[in-house]
Amino acid sequence: MGNSKNITTSNRLIHYDLMRVLACFCVIVIHIGICDDNPTNGAFSIDSSFSSLYSIVARWAVPCFLMVSGVMFLDKNKNIPIKKLYGKYILRLAVSYVFWSCIYALYNSFYDAGDSFIEKFKYFASYCLSGELHTWYILVTIGIYMTLPIIKHLINTLDEKKLRYWILMMFIFFSIVPFVSSLSIPMFPGYVAYINKYMELYFFAGYMFYFVMGYYLVSHDISAKIKKCIYSLSVVGFVYSVVVLCLFNPLFGLKIGVLGYSNPNIVFMSMGVFLFFTDVVSKHKFSNKFKRVITSLSGLTYGIYLIHVLILKVLHNMEVSLSFCAKSVSILIVSLITFIFAAIIVYIMKKVPLVGKYLC
Question: How many other C-beta atoms are found inside a 10 Å radius of the C-beta of residue 293?
Fold first, then answer.
């Protein structure tokens, strides 16, 4: 890894727009289980293997969302005053979180609460700010944005060696330590978890790792040797995930977790995908028509992310399931239908003043 280089986000980076669109579709694939009326409950089958495989293939999406945000917000040429940070970016996230939490709580109250109005109201009041299964990402992003004034100062003052040390420490305490602590090895994981608990190195933990890593991979010259290492580790991470989730767990009745966003295998896979878009896709010459389509869809991805679970729930309650054909096909079809419906709804919402600005 060599010297620092300047990056600019003044022009559209079409490869990152394309990454956002594909990542958004992958998030829908991850959550497609909402429409699965015939879950395999861990038993081995061809259908379960495809479900697991798609979930693995799509797992890079959320980390890459964060890495792209890191590229944009940590750019040394982009100055964001604290007033603008809160008034523009954090306010939008907070308002959309509250609004969609209420929408999901209201919708769920009709299906998960009792029949009386009082029971439905109690349910709504209890969950109106709890979000849905995917809205945790908004809170993570708000937390990262709140640290931006300090993080950007660190980025601008740390030299190459210290910045790499910071990233290494984040990787250890965000990924390696939790992974080791989860292993079923007598005593050793317990020691690691105990030591980590009382060291309280929260500065090195959390999703900030992806945010800073994305910036680093773009803003610094990465040697060919290191790139090959990242690509190799991403392949190893993918193979490990497939073997464990599609073979070991169902065949031997194990419950080894491999899909957590902090797991080393997911970290390496995500870095490999991000580096591929940065290093390879960025060099491809796309047609102007393709750029316009991708740029337009990229502007809808936040709204699609917010609303896609609601559409999946509606489809499920309409008895649309993944059982109408082989899951290797139905997962992709239902995901595509959800993506298209969500894009249309968000496109319309963005035409409404304030709604498009704050809610999607």
Answer: 14
Query: What is the distance between the alpha carbons of residues 259 and 69, in angstroms, rounded to a whole number?
Result: 22
**Six-digit token pair at 36?**
């699965």
Matching residue, tokens 């409950």: 41
CA proximity to 251, closest of 57, 56, 40: 40
Q: Is 91 in contact with 301 (CB distance < 8 Å)?
A: no
For residue 244, give the nearest of 59, 53, 57, 61 by alpha carbon. 53
User: Hey, what are 238's tokens?
Assistant: 């993918």
Structure tokens belonging to residue 158 = 């740390």
Give which of 161, 96, 157, 156 is closest to 132, Cα–Cα: 96
Cα gap 102→74, rounded to integer Å: 32
Cβ-based neighbours of 40, under 8 Å, separated by 6 or more: 47, 48, 51, 250
Q: CA 350 to CA 357: how far, in whole Å?
A: 7
* Among candidate residues 100, 175, 111, the one with its CA nearest the CA of residue 133: 100
pTM score, two decimals? 0.90
Contact 316, 334 (CB under 8 A): no
User: What residue has token string 């079809």?
Assistant: 333
φ, ψ (nearest 5 deg) of residue 220:
-120, 150
Per-position pLDDT tens, the chain of length 360: 445 565 544 457 899 999 999 999 999 999 997 777 655 555 556 767 788 899 999 999 999 999 999 999 999 888 899 999 999 999 999 999 999 999 999 999 988 877 888 888 888 888 888 889 899 999 999 999 999 999 999 998 999 999 999 999 999 999 998 888 887 676 666 777 777 777 777 778 889 999 999 999 999 989 999 999 999 999 999 999 999 988 888 777 777 788 999 999 999 999 999 999 999 999 999 999 999 999 999 999 999 999 999 999 999 888 887 777 778 888 999 999 999 999 999 999 999 988 988 998
DSSP string, 148-165: HHHHHHHHHH--HHHHHH
Note whether 113 and 119 are within 8 A (CB). Answer: yes
Q: Are 172 and 179 in contact (CB under 8 A)?
A: no
